[in-house]
Amino acid sequence: MSYTKRVLEEVIKKNSNEPEFIQAVTEVLTSLQPYVDSHPDYEKEGVLERLCEPERIVMFRVPWVDDSGKVRVNKGYRVQFNSAIGPYKGGLRFHPSVSLSIIKFLGFEQIFKNSLTGLPMGGGKGGSDFDPKGKSDREIMAFCQSFMTELSRHIGPDTDVPAGDIGVGAREVGYLYGQYKRLTNTFTGVLTGKGLTYGGSLTRTEATGYGLVYIMEEMLRQHGQSFEGKTVVVSGAGNVAIYATQKVQQLGGKVVAMSDSDGFVYDPDGIDLAVVKEIKEVRRGRISEYVDSRKNATYTKGRGIWNIKCDIALPCATQNELNADDAKALIKNGCFAVGEGANMPTTLEATELLQQNKVLFVPGKAANAGGVAVSGLEMSQNSMRTSWTFEEVDRKLKDIMVNIYNSISTVAKEVGQEDNFVVGANIAGFKKVADAMLKQGIV
Ligand code: NDP
Asked: What would the CATH number be for the domain defined by 3-186?
């Protein structure tokens, strides 16, 4: 049996109750197989076994008091997965679906994503099963302060630098940062995604969505295409979805649908982003409210956004939101490119279907790397005690995304799988981390 197959079997056996983690490892190891098996050093040094086992997992109790005076308890996690090329780096997710499996899959993906950015960042991820929906500001603050009271023992600007993710935006990062500062009496770049008045970077808010569209733009350009005049469907209505939509619109594309976890809106005239931002960023409302201000728009409860006809699909909500049936619908309707703004939004089966049908598919670890890339730039600015302009950061972000595209497409060609960006991203991300691990001995 090949080395990669043997390690994959062990991972499946040892983590049998962690389906999302197994899914992420299966995708990576399967596509690495020919490359890894032709480099015997990796097996001799146990690189894959070490890569698939987090360096450290911290799990903790998060007690807090709600507005009625009741004591609530949530689970807290930080998975410090791999520090071969830099301090652990990766977001915090607050969502009721959060489990160890979800955090491990996200941390594992983060290792390769961070490597692809070219910046010195290891992989980590954390979060809680806390649900911020419907909570008052005071409840959010109480939760964040309790969460950080434990997390602060395990992070630091040269050790582990968390950021936001689903359910953790500017407000939560602010409360987390305030508590870290209070506990440690230090003002350091220990979190990214900070507010602009206390060490945040311009363009961080836009970075993941813009970065997604920049890498897709480059991929389209190199295939004789562009966003100009194309119909685009974007799922989600959060940070990534909003700024992906904004950049598509700036490049002349027409976004006709967006969603949240309750349903989706279709607007044949093109999404009015000001309306979405007012609902989601200001009022923290539901996407269904969109139809109140747009006369031709319709709202559909539940799933189904991928049945809308489009040229380009950008899943930007959550894991496994695009399954095999969705992929078939996209293919039938002539969709020719899919870019993952979210982490692992496409199931393994759906990815295979898209690739078999020659849909250009850019996986999340490359396509959504813009967020962590600008987080890396935020760390640099904090260390240098400086701040760059929006234009400077935006230019660096674009350069990074174009470089990522070139490196994943070059590697795909080198291994004889032109346009297989899954293989390209996995090998390109893996190589740097694995080579650093080989040089650092058995640690
Ligand atoms: P937000 O919390 O800002 O937004 C998430 C959006 O997705 C919301 O509109 C949410 O709807 C929707 N959503 C969540 N779960 C589901 C579901 N089961 N079905 C349909 N819609 C759902 O998160 P982000 O935009 O930051 O993150 C989105 C994705 O992008 C995640 O996979 C994240 O890991 C990934 N990502 C984010 C980065 C960042 O910088 N923020 C960086 C790289 C990747 P509702 O309001 O109903 O919950």
From this structure: 3.40.50.10860
